Amino acid sequence: MSEAEQIPASASEAAASAVLDALNATDSNGTEALNATAKFVASPEGTALAYGSLVFMALLPIFFGALRSVTCSKSKNAADMPETITSRDAARFPIIASCTLFGLYLFFKVFSQEYINLLLSVYFFVLGVLALSHTMSPLMSRVFPASFPNKQYQLLFTQGSGESKEEIVNYEFDTKNLVCLLISSVVGVWYLLKKHWIANNLFGLAFALNGVELLHLNNVSTGCILLGGLFIYDVFWVFGTNVMVTVAKSFEAPIKLVFPQDLLEKGLEASNFAMLGLGDIVIPGIFIALLLRFDVSLNKNSRTYFYSSFLAYIFGLGLTIFVMHTFKHAQPALLYLVPACVGFPVIIALFKGELTEMFRYEESSEETKEEATESEKKDQ
């Protein structure tokens, strides 16, 4: 999507852009999903701990990101407005992701891997700090006491003067946001200097949660187009070429969740990791979040489609681990996640007689809702 190339003007926009960029590279990392280092033979306990931890970490941003997406869709704050993915965006996304993946492959073949990863580290340091800060912000609002002197600030950058003055940047923040930014910066420096797997996971979780929260599919049909296209994309680049594996092994950035399989033997200094790409979290996650918003729109105090798709994601991820562990070969996780996450809710909707209503559901922006309300008032 073109929005991925824009320079973010606020923390939430930065988070969305970070995830979009991450997705282009994440699916390039998806081939290494849950893949262990070949030379290391993990113990059964270490393997179970690593896979279990990856599944748990994958569920966190999907669950909480989906809940926050409901609030985000109702927000009138420009800084927190979601980025809507249309059918055209969804159809183009696999092509853009493929071009990005192959471009990275050529870069790693032509240029020094060390310098490329240095540039990527700096880039993701900035975006990671902003994403983590945005993720922590609601939590900090609850942690700080009511008596805390929370001062308001505004960063305003304009062009021109008088009537022709145009706002370029208008970002409002407070003292709590500054505290979040400070804590996130400490994590960022830790990641930049040590590349520690815990710092990597903190950034990865922040990217994933912001992606699920801020990237909205406008309807179920768009979700099916996006997931279907990336299903083909993932299978082709995993089984058809060695491009994805090469990029995944060369790419050093917090666009994946990792967990050491030798943690029990080496502690926090462990170095043999199982991995899960963020694309395998965010892509199904934004579809699951859409189904939660559809549940809310039904006004039935039921979350049937959300919980069914959430359980389907657990099933699909578990199946990915089982197949990979059985055949000892990296698997495209979307091969199993897409049919599960789409199929389960559709079957339930078919039995409940709500399939037509599900596919007719259209999520409109807050501006569209306001215009519709004003139009109704005029008609009355």
UniProtKB/TrEMBL annotation:
It is found in: Endoplasmic reticulum membrane; Membrane. GO terms for molecular function: aspartic endopeptidase activity, intramembrane cleaving. It is a multi-pass membrane protein. GO terms for biological process: membrane protein proteolysis; signal peptide processing. One of its GO terms (cellular component) is lumenal side of endoplasmic reticulum membrane. InterPro entries: Peptidase_A22B_SPP, Preselin/SPP. Keywords: Endoplasmic reticulum, Hydrolase, Membrane, Transmembrane, Transmembrane helix. The chain crosses the membrane at residues 48-70, 90-108, 114-132, 199-217, 224-248, 273-292, 304-327, 333-351. PANTHER family: MINOR HISTOCOMPATIBILITY ANTIGEN H13, SIGNAL PEPTIDE PEPTIDASE. Belongs to the peptidase A22B family. This is Histocompatibility minor 13.
